[in-house]
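Same chain as my last thread, 108 residues:
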Amino acid sequence: MADAGTGTKIDEALTRRVANLARLELTDEEVKIFTQQIAGILKYVDQLQELDVSQVEPLTHPMAHPSESPTSLREDEVVVFESVAAMLLDGESHEGGYQRGYKVPQII
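reply #2:
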């Protein structure tokens, strides 16, 4: 049995129950390993919760300070079109009419 530091005892029975709920089949050795790892992770989370972050400014991007954002942010601009056709024709890369919409690069 491992103490997660949260007052919750992480034991093999709990690990097996969570694995069952997740539909995972674990060997006895995996249960022992994961029990220790889960307890270690929860103990680390407890350490993080003890930190005083009241003076830390939230980030808008994980890679930079808000004043050094790697992406250029712009103000939202409301554009009103007379028709759907006019809206589609305004796009830089459109294809066809209403049925086709905007053409975007394939991502998969």
